[in-house]
Structure to design on (226 residues):
C-alpha cells in the first residue's frame, strides 16, 4: 500500500537558517512525488514536482529512491516561507490519484 | 477563470443539523475531489469524481456523509446529522487528471465547518 509520512507536525527555524521538511513514502512501484504549500489565507497549491527538478522560491527536493525520501530543503529560510507544507505521492500513472501526508507547519521567526 | 469556488466559506451549526457544502470546479476539469483537513489527521481524501461519476468514496467516514455531482459544474457534500467531530475545513479540488502523474490539483479556498 502507498503511504506518505511527514514526521514533523511543527517545525520552527530562524530567518536565514537552513530548513528541511522531511517526507518519506512507501510504494513498491515508480513514484511521482510532489510538494504542496498553503500560505495563510491562501489556497493550497502545488509548489514543486520531483520530475521537473526545479527550484521554486529557493526550495528544492530530491527524490531518493534508496531511502524512499523526498525532503524539501531551502538553504536560507525567509519569513514568507511560513506555511503548511504537504508532501504528496502519485503512482506514476495518468489514472492514479494523489496521496497526501499529514503536513508540516513551518514557522520562520524573524 | 475564478478557480474552484466553494460555499459557504464558514458554517457554524449545532449538532444534529444538516450541513451542505457546495463546489463549482474549474470549467473543463474532469476530476473533482473532496478533502477534509484537520490538525490531527491532516488532509484526507473523502471522495472523488470523474465525469460526474464517483470513483473512490472509501474515504467517506460513515453514512452520515454523502456527495453528489449532478453535472459537470456543481458538486455537494452533505453531512446529516452533523456531529462536533465533523468540525474541519473541507476542500474541493478539480483537475484535468486524477493528479497521480502531474500532481496538479486546483483547490478551492475551503469551507470551515464548526459543529457545536
Amino acid at each position: 500500500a502507498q503511504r506518505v509520512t511527514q514526521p514533523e507536525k511543527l517545525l520552527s527555524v530562524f530567518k536565514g537558517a537552513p530548513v528541511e521538511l522531511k517526507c518519506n513514502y512507501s510504494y513498491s512501484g515508480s513514484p511521482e512525488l510532489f510538494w504542496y504549500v498553503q500560505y495563510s489565507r491562501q489556497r493550497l497549491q502545488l509548489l514543486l514536482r520531483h520530475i521537473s527538478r526545479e527550484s521554486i522560491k529557493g526550495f528544492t527536493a530530491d527524490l531518493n529512491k534508496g531511502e524512499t525520501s523526498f525532503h524539501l530543503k531551502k538553504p536560507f529560510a525567509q519569513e514568507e516561507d511560513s506555511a503548511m507544507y504537504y508532501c504528496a505521492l502519485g503512482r506514476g500513472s495518468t489514472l492514479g490519484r494523489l496521496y497526501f501526508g499529514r503536513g508540516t507547519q513551518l514557522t520562520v521567526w524573524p | 477563470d475564478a478557480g474552484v469556488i466553494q460555499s459557504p466559506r464558514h458554517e457554524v451549526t449545532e449538532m444534529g443539523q444538516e450541513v451542505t457544502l457546495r463546489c463549482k470546479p474549474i470549467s473543463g476539469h474532469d476530476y473533482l475531489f473532496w478533502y477534509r483537513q484537520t490538525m490531527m489527521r491532516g488532509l484526507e481524501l473523502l471522495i472523488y469524481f470523474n465525469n460526474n461519476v464517483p470513483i473512490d468514496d472509501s474515504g467517506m467516514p460513515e453514512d452520515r456523509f454523502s456527495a453528489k455531482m449532478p453535472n459537470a459544474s456543481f458538486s455537494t457534500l452533505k453531512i446529516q446529522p452533523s456531529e462536533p467531530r465533523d468540525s474541519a475545513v473541507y476542500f474541493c479540488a478539480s483537475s484535468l487528471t486524477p493528479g497521480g502523474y502531474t500532481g496538479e490539483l486546483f483547490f478551492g479556498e475551503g469551507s470551515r465547518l464548526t459543529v457545536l
Chain B touches chain A at residues 3, 33, 35, 39, 41-45, 48, 56, 91, 93, 97-105, 107-110 (CB under 8 Å). The mean pLDDT of chain B is 93. The longest strand of chain B covers residues 42-50.
